[in-house]
Structures are given as C-alpha cells and as structure tokens.
Design brief:
Helices cover 72% and strands 4% of the residues. With 108 residues, the chain is mainly α. The chain has one domain. The radius of gyration is 21 Å and the shape is rod-shaped.
C-alpha cells in the first residue's frame, strides 16, 4: 500500500490502533509468561509437589501453559505483520473513514 506524500498526509488511524493493540498484547504476553514460569519451573524440578498425581498434573499443565504462550505469541506476530502492511500516514479523507470504522473521531 503506497504511503501518501506531501500535503494532506495525516497519521493513519489504523496504524495507531494496531500499534496500541500490539502494546497491549505485549503486556498480556509478558504477564502470562511471568505467571507461568514459576509454577512450571517448580513442577518441572519437583520442588512444588512430588507424587504420581503431580507428575500427571505437570504433564497437563506444562503443555497447556506452552499452548497459551504460543497462542499469544501468534497473535503478536499477526499484529506485527498487519502493522508492517499498514501505512503510517494517509489522506485526511481516508483517515476520516478509518476513524469511523474504528469507532469514533479519534479511532478509540
């Protein structure tokens, strides 16, 4: 998508929206990873709980934790790709259309 140049180029509301979403996903990704690291490590090394039940539970928790982290990482990757394809500026008319699509005068 070519970026407008010269007079009339304004910040692209979709680009701004995607940038905000990417930041929010990064925060969620960090929180999820941090919350799962400690129990995953404690379960893996046997410091939290040692028994046949603990082994079975760890066998379910650890892959599930990895699945959640992977899903958020995939969302992050998709947003990054979409952001790379979205121009940083556009015409005022296009900006107005995007603001309307995104839900308000400022795209909020």
């Amino acid at each position: 998508m070519p970026q407008p140049t010269g007079a009339g180029a304004v910040p692209h509301p979709l680009h701004a929206h995607l940038t905000l979403l990417l930041k929010r996903v990064a925060v969620a990704q960090m929180r999820l990873t941090n919350k799962q690291q400690k129990p995953t490590a404690a379960i893996s090394d046997g410091t939290a709980w040692v028994s046949p039940t603990a082994t079975r539970w760890a066998g379910e928790f650890i892959p599930q934790a990895a699945k959640y982290v992977g899903a958020v990482r995939a969302l992050n990757d998709d947003l990054e790709q979409l952001l790379r394809r979205t121009p940083t500026t556009c015409t005022e008319e296009e900006a107005a259309r995007w603001r309307a699509k995104l839900g308000g005068p400022r795209g909020a």
